[in-house]
Replication restart protein PriA
Amino acid sequence: MSSKRFAEVIVELKSSQVDRPFHYEVPDHWQQQVEIGTRVLVPFGPRRLEGYIVGFSMAAEVTKTKPILEVLDDEPPLTPDLVQLAGWLSERYLCTTAAAVQALLPSGMRAKASTTLRLADELPFVQPGSLEADLLQALYESPNKTKEQLIAERPEWRPILRAWVAAGILIESYRIKQGAQVKTITCLRCTLDATRFPAALEALGRAKKQKEVLAFLFDRDDAVPMKDVLSELSASSSTLKPLLEKGYIQKEEQEVLRDPYGIVHGQKEQPLPLTELQRAAYDQIAAAVDSRKPETFLLQGVTGSGKTEVYLQAIASCVAQGRQAIMLVPEISLTPQMVERFKKRFGDDVAVMHSRLSAGEKFDEWRRIRQGDVTIVVGARSAIFAPFHSIGLMIVDEEHEVSYKQDDHPKYLAREVAMYRARQHGATVVLGSATPALETRWWAHQGQIRRIEMSERVMGQRLPKVKVIDMRNELQEGNRSMFSTVLQKEMEKRLETGEQIILFLNRRGFATFVLCRSCGYVARCPECEIPLTFHKARGLEQLRCHYCGYAERMPNICPDCQGDHVRHFGTGTQRVEEELNRVFPEANVIRMDVDTTSGKGSHAVLLQRFRNQEAQILLGTQMIAKGLDFPNVTLVGVISADTSLFVPDFRAAERTFQLLTQVAGRAGRHQLPGEVVIQSYNPQHYAVQFAKKQEYENFFQHEIRVRHAVHNPPFRELTAFTSVNVNETEALRIARTVEDRLRILFQGRDDVIILGTSPAPLSRLQGKFRFNVVVKYVRFKQVGASIRTVYLEAAQEAQKAGGYLSIDVNAQMIL
DNA sequence: GCGGTCACATGA
DNA sequence: CATGTGACCGCG
């Protein structure tokens, strides 16, 4: 045998102190089974931990070692390229390798090792009434309790347990419990062959039902699910018992995959004919996939230009080459209709991945991918980690969406992960949007990305007419309603003709805060300092904090000046609904917001009702802005374009433009011409003006100059440190430490700008103080190592101070 | 991340 | 000195 190899294992602990490989001996009987990516159970100090093999080293390099205790899977969960990806994630987003590994595997993958205890023959002598006596009694009474359970019950038993194990009074053994279980169903099989079957049937005598069951199973070659047998023959399980006892039939467990969507039966849908523009886009993408060289496209197509059909056909051509494809969509647009479209085109070659699946369902979809049962994945952000072995194409639809940035560690950006995997696999990335992220459009301008434009709508419909209403004039003219005269008139028209209306409430940031019109008092959450929002449920007027859930009654008089002019201000969907009921009492309204769509599937139900024309007006927030397509909608109203413009965020203009453009795109996608009314107190703002004309390119030209002037993306990348602590001075101190160290490290570097310590826009969340330090730099490669050092050191100090420090590399939003 | 251990305070 | 408590050490 060649010289012994030792496994380098990353243990499942998310602490920077242990974020390095540890060496373990591979027992001979596992030599064949372990490879890079294998999940193992290893001894780690006094504990047993799950870990992943990330490499091997030779004996000479190893100083200390213990043997691997267990190999946890038949097939390694991670492929070597995923191990490499985990390494990259940890470097790019400054997280531990363990955290990266966890992000790229389905939740529920984690196994739990538990320790069982058995009393040896020799019993300990214990003082009656002592801790030891209690423990001994517990061990007798519930011998199946694990060591972990006992310690959780009475922590003071821990040292006794340790002593008894050392003295040989207790014998430990461990058991592994998989997180998500492989689901099995019980099946029945006839054990008899043709020679013994007649005799057995005879022997059953007058047991008619038993004979039926036996004959039924004898006719089948395969095992049949028990519940099918019972329902088919309308037998009960008691019929089976004698057959099992006689050994004529046997039970066996068969693995099944949970399939949350089911297989779509019937004819697979055929590809649709492509327009000239679609054909041109398809040809370029398919050629890139063929070339097997990594390449990224920006597919910039106006709403209704038919991007999805291009995606579908590009995926088909990729799959035809024996390679796999990943399609990312924003979580919100991962609707049943969307999934159905893929299932209809590709049948059961498709796996679906999103956050609303149960842990078991996720695990099973993941296994279908890993085992090669499917070639296509449709999913939200994390689907970019699908464990395919040869990816040909990755599509990021609506690539500008903020939801492509993960909000906890590792705070990855799906678009970047796609581009990294493309380099690993020689794959093509397609970033699709009508309103691309400014960065993406800029990279296309610079030539790093190839841009394909689709500027015409497939059906040749005209873009909707957009009117911008200056709300300041309305107020001057004495219209105190939230609907301008124009919007109200247009709505009346639609209600008469029976056409439908979508009302969009741009509620980002400041919603319905409560303000005293006499003294300016604003009701805030005592914990978070965030303006409370007004809610009305079952006649009860309440103020609630959107971040921590705090609630109080709506005050009648101002707590500050005792005046009686306290009003809720801004506009929430509920208030618009009330106003609608007042102005148009005969109209049916469907309201969609967090309150009405919390239940599972309620989102889809409401949309279906609107589609069935059970209501003339659909009223909602961002969640109705995209992906919707209703033939009978001819009017879209935006109550106020302003709210998102004044969010303290450099992307506010971009977001507002994108939102307004998307919303406007909802109108008139079919035969009927569409109209859009945007109300604003700042109608002259360029984001509003360019959205009105649906001019992305002009908006881009304008905004890019703004970004350049103030050194914001795409000219610099932003990384944000957030120091969090219940103690304000400590939070501030850590943030200042970060700032000071960064200033020292980057002294004299004009490619780096440090924005000093400032209270975070959400300065108090859940009773904790938050301070931000933001670094702007040109190339992460040139600053990453320094930022990492500062982060690791300061994070440790923050922990000592009872708080924590988090980091967001390439932050999309500073919160 | 966390169990073990060590240094030190507290109390009789 | 026994016992409790908090910091920190090191895991292969």
Observations:
- Residues 6, 8-9, 11, 13, 17-18, 21-25, 42-47, 49, 62-66, 800 of chain A lie near DNA strand C (CB under 10 Å from a C1').
- The mean pLDDT of chain A is 84.
- The longest strand of chain A covers residues 752-765.
